[in-house]
Amino acid sequence: xxxxxAYATRHGATAGIAERIGERLRSHGLEADVVPAGSVKDPARxxxxxxGAAAYMFHWLGDxxxxxxxxxxxxxxxxxxxxxxxxxxxxxxxxxxxxxxxTSIPREFPELRAAVHPRGEQVFFGAWDPTAPPxxxxxxxxxxxxxxxxxxxxxxxxxWPAIDxxxxxxxxxxxxxxARMPVGA
Length: 185
Ligand SMILES: Cc1cc2nc3c(=O)[nH]c(=O)nc-3n(C[C@H](O)[C@H](O)[C@H](O)COP(=O)(O)O)c2cc1C
Hints:
By secondary structure, the chain is an alpha/beta fold. The chain has helices spanning about 15-25, 60-70, 70-75, 100-105, 110-115, 135-145, 145-150, 160-175; strands at about 1-10, 30-35, 50-55, 60, 80-85, 120-125, 125-130, 155. Strands 1, 2, 3, 4, 5 and 6 form a six-stranded mixed β-sheet that branches. The chain has a two-stranded antiparallel ribbon with strand order 7-8. Strand 1 (about 1-10), helix 1 (about 15-25) and strand 2 form a beta-alpha-beta unit. Flavin mononucleotide binds near residues 12, 13, 139, 142 and 152.
C-alpha cells in the first residue's frame, strides 16, 4: 500500500512532522512518499493520504487547503487523515482556559471535513524560531513589534511520541482494512 504524506510549511516544523510520519509508516511496512502539497504529481496513484499544514493566523497554509480542495473526490474515496502543526509552548489551555488543541483547529476544517470525511485529524504542538527570516506579512509586522514577538514562546515543542503514536494508529488502521483491493485480485 502506497501512502502520500503531503504537507505545507513556512519554516520547516511541519515538514519535520511529515517526514517523521512517513518514516514511521515505512517502519510498519507501508510505502510512504513525503511531498510538499504544492508539488504532488499524480495523487491518484496513492491508496491513502495524510495531509498536514501549519496554522497561521487561524488558517491552514494555502498549499494544503488547495491540495485537499482540488482532490476532494479522490480523498473522500480513500482513507485520509489531516493534521495541523500549531500551538507553541507546552500549555494545554490558553489564558482564557480554552483547550489549545481545539482553538488551533484551522478555520478551513469544517469545510475540509465535510469534503473528505477524514478518518482522523490531529493538532500537534509546533515550533517557532523568532530569529528565522520572517515569511509573510504577519511575521514582518511582528518583527516591528517586540512585544508581540515575545508573546509567542520560542522553541521546538513538537511532541515526537504523540506524532509517532498517531502514525502507528494510521498504520494499524490501514493494515486492518486495506484501502482498495490490489490490482488483479
Ligand atoms: C505569526 C504567527 C502566527 C501563528 N498563528 C498560529 C495560529 O493561528 N494557530 C496556531 O495553532 N499556531 C499558530 N502559529 C504557530 C505555528 O503554527 C507554528 O509555529 C508551526 O509549527 C509552524 O510550522 P512551520 O515551521 O511548518 O511553518 C503562528 C506562528 C506565527 C509565527
